[in-house]
Structures are given as structure tokens and as C-alpha cells.
Write a structure and sequence with these properties.
By secondary structure, the protein is an all-alpha fold. The chain has three helices and no strands. Helix 2 packs antiparallel against helix 3 (66-95).
Length: 106
């Protein structure tokens, strides 16, 4: 989040001079954050795959065997759940008001 905030500050400062410079800075900052998030996701899924493979797949099992299929299904379910949580957390943060509508505004 610190990197994203710094990129937003740089974009704002660049926008004071020209729109083209602001777009260049914002695309650079966005690509760095996007690659960072994707890289961490791949690293996490790779580590989880190694752990699940060590738990569920015996050493002499086939790559196309039912044990490997179970491992891939668990990994796919985990990925879908993580994606859903991230999506709904982002949508929920925008749509949920900070205070109840019936609360006094004092």
C-alpha cells in the first residue's frame, strides 16, 4: 500500500505539469504494483502446491494419478476462494457506508 500511495503522490505531482507525464507515471506505478501482486500470488500458490503435494501425493505416485488430481482440485478451490474474498472485500469497502444512515451526523 505504501508503494501505491507513493505512486499516487507522484502522479498528482506530474499532473500539475502535464497530463501525458501523469499518465506515464501512473501506468508505471500501476504496472509495478500489478506485477508485484501477481508475483506474490504465483509464489504463494507455488508454495501451497509444494505443501499439498507433500501431504497428499506419495513419492511413487503418477503425475496423472488421482492423488495429483485431488491436490490440483484443492489448490483450485483455494485460489477461487481467495479471489472471491479479494473481490468482495474491494466491492464491500466501496459500497458499505462508513456510518449507518440512521445515525446522527453531529
Amino acid at each position: 500500500m505504501r508503494i501505491a500511495t507513493k505512486a499516487n503522490v507522484r502522479t498528482t505531482q506530474a499532473a500539475k505539469t502535464s497530463l501525458a507525464k501523469a499518465l506515464q507515471v501512473s501506468f508505471t506505478g500501476g504496472s509495478v504494483m500489478g506485477l508485484g501482486v501477481a508475483g506474490l500470488a504465483v509464489l504463494g500458490l507455488g508454495a501451497l502446491f509444494i505443501i499439498l503435494k507433500a501431504i497428499f501425493v506419495p513419492a511413487d505416485a503418477s503425475v496423472n494419478g488421482p492423488e495429483m488430481l485431488k491436490t490440483i482440485e484443492i489448490l483450485t478451490g483455494f485460489s477461487l476462494g481467495a479471489e472471491s474474498i479479494a473481490l468482495f472485500a474491494r466491492v464491500g469497502a466501496v459500497s458499505i457506508p462508513r456510518r449507518p444512515m440512521w445515525a446522527p451526523t453531529s
